[in-house]
Amino acid sequence: MQKLSAVKGMNDILPPDSARWEWLEEVVRSLMQRYAYRAIRTPIVEPTALFVRGLGEVTDIVEKEMYSFEDRLNGEQLTLRPEATAGVVRAAVEHSLLYDGGKRLYYMGPMFRHERPQRGRYRQFHQIGAEALGFPGAEVDAEIILLAHALWAELGLAGVRLELNSLGQPEERKAHRAALIAHFAAHQDLLDEDARRRLHSNPLRILDTKNPAMQAVVDGAPRLIDHLGEASRAHLEQVQAMLDAAGVAWSINPRLVRGMDYYNLTVFEFVTDQLGAQGTICGGGRYDYLVEQMGGKPAPAVGWALGVERVLELLKEQQRAPATVAPHAYAVVPDAAALPTAMACLQRLRGLGIAVQMHAGGAQGLGSMKAQFKKADASGARFALVFGADELQAGMLTVKPLREAGEQVQRPLADLAALAASLQSPR
């Protein structure tokens, strides 16, 4: 039969790499709890209209990258989620989460975009995100930025810089839009096909072009920050002041616009120079009009999302990834007759918090002691627990160090709690 493979750009996550994913997720869960953010889980499949309405009809994601299909049973147009914010807002509206005030939420999970697979950019990729719904103040913008900044510190990452901008409010964007159209129309011969198509539908997206041939005309375009009114400027200045007070460095990037149409006021990205073209590891901003767009009562909101694959890649680059998780001990069983006793002891040790790997042989038998010790060493365990016939007859088992100096010792089976404490002791 033909060998089946994973879909291009959708990758298996195998041990030992899966342990690094779990470690990152645990660090995030602990940090989110300290900031009083609570987990939300939304469906992977959503109505296509959710993303067309929320992200913008002329964004790259909606036009080119979504995995959309028709439900064969009822004809409904559905899409594998390309991002999570729209789904979080949909859930908040559908379940009236904001009826008693704002909510701080976070999520983890896979997203899907049909892109050319490359380092840090896959068709199934994973995001971790934080969303603060129902809070209007600049202090929440600062809080959510500080949350991401604290995560880099928890992970031990260096060289991650924060870039800020403001997209203002709709009237300010309208004035800037007119100025952009005039500027790009005057240089239409320098625009690529995408930019010409967006000139009148969404000129702000032209600023996000990756086409090097257009950089000069983009650099010369009117800046949105120069069209901000007093209130929008004050909001950005308040965010900056709170970041300064917390000792977090930032810089203004007047061309930072993000990839979705729902943003207003503060937008930001955390960027590194160590991942090449995929240098943005986290981005977000304020989106005060999305809740109303999704059919809810008007409510402000701000959030961010990070790319899990990119963060793990950066951890690897900086040699910050944790060591492979290994069991405390590996059970060596010379004779199959000892298996019932060995398994009962291991079950009790696991109940006491000990990670122990059971040797298994199946129909071929358990194998020689030499072969079992070779597998014990390969497991990464610190100790081998040897269930020999003589030891068991004496009510004992042998504990042999595998990773450090020391003599093997015998421990009584009647006091597994003491054995568990010794196996967990520091080196």
UniProtKB/TrEMBL annotation:
Protein name: Histidine--tRNA ligase
Chief place of localization: cytoplasm
Family, as annotated: Belongs to the class-II aminoacyl-tRNA synthetase family.
Residues annotated as domain Aminoacyl-transfer RNA synthetases class-II family profile: 24-334
Top-rank taxon, per record: Bacteria
Subunit and partners: Homodimer.
Positions of L-histidine binding: E83, A84, T85, R113, Q127, E131, R258, Y262, Y263
Keywords: Aminoacyl-tRNA synthetase, ATP-binding, Cytoplasm, Ligase, Nucleotide-binding, Protein biosynthesis
GO cellular component: cytoplasm
Gene Ontology molecular function, alphabetical: ATP binding; histidine-tRNA ligase activity
